[in-house]
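Q: What residues go here?
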């Protein structure tokens, strides 16, 4: 439920827009990664990358174990606050 002058579905609409923007960023990143050839061996541990993984993820550079470690260590960015702070809305 939105408050103030916002429509009741404004919050859900904003969540949907943010989700779509994140999906588009991932698609762009994957398209750019697909432009380069997949590695035969992991860049971190030099273990062979299975053919099935190289075909499933074009441009892959890490084995499953190394990628899993990076995924666990990753912290999401803060994102964009489109509404701004209340102080910025006061004039």
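A:
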């Amino acid at each position: 439920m939105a408050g103030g002058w916002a429509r009741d579905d404004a919050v859900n609409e904003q969540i949907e827009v943010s989700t779509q923007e994140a999906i588009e960023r991932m698609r762009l990143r994957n398209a750019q990664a697909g432009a380069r050839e997949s590695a035969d061996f992991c860049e971190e541990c030099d273990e062979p990358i299975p053919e099935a993984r190289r075909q499933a993820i074009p441009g892959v550079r890490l084995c499953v174990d190394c990628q899993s470690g990076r995924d666990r260590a990753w912290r999401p960015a803060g994102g964009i606050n489109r509404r701004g702070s209340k102080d910025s809305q006061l004039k």
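A: Context that may help when evaluating the design: The chain is about 50% helix and 0% strand. The first helix runs from residue 10 to 34.
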